[in-house]
# Entry
Amino acid sequence: MSRTPPAAYSASSSTDMSAAMPAPDEVSVSATNASTAVERPFSSTPGDAGPDLVIAIDFGTTFTGVAYIHAAHYKDTDLTPHQIAQRIEVIKRWPRADQEKIPTRLAYDDAGQAVQWGSGVTGTQKTNISCFKLGLQSGLDAHYKRNFGGSTGFLTDSNWKSPNLPNKEPVDFVADYLSFITDHVINKHFPRTFGNAFLANQTIGYVVTVPACWSQKAKDLTRQATMRANIPQSSLHFITEPEAAALYCASISNEVGLRNGEYFTVCDAGGGTVVCRLDS
# Structure
C-alpha cells in the first residue's frame, strides 16, 4: 500500500521490499475496469459505513512500512477517490529512524523475549533474527541458495532454527514483529499525532500485504501471526503486493499517464529479486 510513484511506464512498483517468489508474481489490470478488478475491502453496504480508520501494513522481508487514512472524514464528501487517496498518510517516524520504512528484524534476550525491533536492532544483541517472513513459505530455499549461497538463516533455509531460540517457529517471529508494529502505531504514533483521546470512538480496519504466490498455508500462518499481534480478524483484509501496486497505478497514479482501455505491467522490484511479466 505504498504511495511510491512508478519509475517507468511499465508501472514498476516497490510496494513490498520483500524478495519475490520463485515463480513470477504479476497482475495485469485494465485501466478501464481497475475499480472492479479486485474486490475492495471495506466496501460500504447498507447499515455498514466501514471503518473510521484504515491502517495498511506493507510487511516485507527486508523492510516494512505503514500507511493510514482517517476515512471517517471523507465518508460524506464529494471528493473523488483520487482526492481522498491524497489524504493517505505514510508513517515516517519510527524508533531510532526517521524514514518511511524500517528493517524487518528482531533482537532477543537470553530468556527468548523480543527486546528490540526495526532500527533498534544494532547487531550488538546476542540473537538477531531477519528474513523470517520467508520461513512462512516452504520451498524458497531452492531459489535463494542459487543467489545467496554464502548466507545462512531463513534466506537459504525455510526450516532454519536459531541456535539460541530452537523452539521458535517463523510464525512466532512474525507475531512478535507485527506486535511491535501495531503497538507503535496505536499506542505511540496516533496519540502523539492526534492526542490521547483520538482512538476512543474509532473503528479500525487493517490491510496487510502478502506475496502473490503465497500458499494457503503461508496465508494461514500470516493470519495466525496477526491474531497474536492483536489485530481483530473481523477487521483484517489481505491484499497481494502486485494487486496493491496495480490498483494504485490504475486508479490514482498521475505519473504513468494511463488511458482508458490500456493495459500495463507491474514489476515487483523486491529486496532480493525483480519479477515481472508482460501480458497483452
Remarks:
- Confidence is low (pLDDT under 50) at residues 1-40.
